[in-house]
Amino acid sequence: MLGVVKQSESDLSEWLSTEWGFVSGVMSFDSEPLVLEPFQTAFLKNRSRFRWITKSRQVGYSFVFALEALARCHLREGHTTVFVSYNQADAIEKILIARQVFEEMPRAYQKKLVTDAKTELAFESNGPTKRISRILSVPSKPPRGKRGDVYLDELAHYSGDREVYTGSTALILRSKGQLTGCSTPLGRRGIFWEIANEELRKYPHHTRQLVPWWLSRFFCKDVAEAAKIAPHLPTEEAVAIFGRPTIIEQFDSLPLEDFEQELCCKFVDESFSWMPYELIIPCTHDSLRVYDDPTDVPEVRGRIVAGFDVGRTRDRSELAVFDQVGDVYRCVMLRTFDGVPFAEQEAELRRVLSVLPVARLSIDRSGIGMNLAENLARDFPQVAAEAFTNESKERWATDFKILLQRQDVHLPRRRELVGQIHAIKRRVLPSGKVSFDAERTSKGHADKFWAVALACQKERGAPKARSVDVGVRVIG
User: What is the rounded distance in angstroms from the CA atom of residue 35 to the CA atom of residue 65?
Assistant: First the structure.
């Protein structure tokens, strides 16, 4: 049943021939009619060859991309859409959305589904031509050999962002397709930032759309009023006045600059970060398999090293395990212990030490972690109890930065892990000493980073004893 009534059959037919009309009138999701946000409708009506969207997280752009692609496959003959996503999981998710919405469409509007795969859907025309329209979805790499629409979702987070963008422009050269770049900001760097802000040069053929959290009715109590006032308010005040509980919770859970970047569309200056995104992102890999149970880890190629950061009252304990081959560290296991009693954490670490051939497990022995470290070190000689001091944290952070610079560490492509590594800041204390740390949030204190840094530290060994020169005087 169509969700909107028009004045005449001609009006209805004309409206349904547009993407926004087809989506609103024909499609549903979870058996509910689709109600588009005004910024989503504006996006669907944008006919620019280059659409550029700077957005808050979780405002529904991946969803509307899938809807537009599905609508165009049914409204056009021989149409091709290519989704490029941050990782394989996101690539598959868009196909799942399009597949579900297709199943819920009235049969009278459906084309024949002839390819139904995790990363591709293909539809055959109902007319005599039997032309095929396709939706393809790939992780963050330059698409080749296709022509049509291209969506670069979360482009700022790609490892080869510039190469992906350059390769994608060729796909629309000989077609009437559109190239859409869409992302939350990730620092003042990369091709997405360059085009969004035009600080280095102009990009006159790109139309830009800015969608912070207060333009979404799911996050904001009064979108119309917030659209006028929120951009001119301090972040904390805007959240207090217009934020729904979900946004207030996010604001309380993130450092201010992270909240402003993830939800307010601000490109945060990276000048205070010890490890900028340019160092971190090339070391992340979507194809890297990382496990959370030691029995699932396949046969390793080198020596196993691990780090364990012990959670305090508000923090989570984190375990990171790496396969070290020469000077290269490949992550094989990550596990979070959230609200887990220390006795159970100790039991699990004993299981890891028994199942995997761990050459070294570096564990935080400061404060509440002392008993855990002492108990394990007593039974497992490969356990190294580490004291968290300004000097040791400086050494571990520096060791890890060198690994990033050499690209000798392989990490999974996970946003939270990348964010925690980037959150580490170097500060000079009034005493003149150097401090390396991150702001505390409700999710911890960059605990994932410290577990990784403990595992990947350079092993310097015990200090050599100083040689002593003994002078001998011979008498007689």
Answer: 15
How many CA atoms, within 13 angstroms, populate the side-chain half-sphere of residue 237? 6
pLDDT per position as a tens digit, 161-220 = 999 999 888 888 777 789 999 999 988 888 999 999 988 889 999 999 999 999 999 999
3-state secondary structure (DSSP) of residue 457:
coil
Same domain, 377 and 435: yes
pTM (two decimals): 0.72
Longest dimension (CA), the chain: 127
Condensed to tens digits (0 to 9), the pLDDT of residues 117-165 reads: 999 999 998 878 889 999 999 888 877 767 789 999 999 998 889 999 9
Residue 40 domain boundaries: 14-211
**Measured distance CA(308)–CA(310) in Å, rounded:** 6
State the CATH number of the domain containing residue 409. 3.30.420.240
d(CA 257, CA 456) in angstroms, rounded, equals 28
- The token duo for 401 is 């930065």
Q: Name the domain count of the chain.
A: 3
User: Is 394 found in the same domain as 319?
Assistant: yes
C-alpha–C-alpha distance, residues 20 and 212, integer Å: 22
3-state SS class at 114: strand
What is the token pair recorded at 3? 């969700």
* Strands across the sheet containing 132-139: 112-117, 120-124, 132-139, 80-85, 149-153, 179-183, 50-55, 206-211
Q: What Rg do the C-alpha atoms of the chain give, in angstroms?
A: 27
| Spatial separation of the C-alpha atoms in residues 133 and 151, rounded to whole Å | 16
CA distances from 55 to 81, 213, 259, 368 (A): 21, 8, 13, 41
Indicate if 177 and 43 belong to the same structural domain.
yes
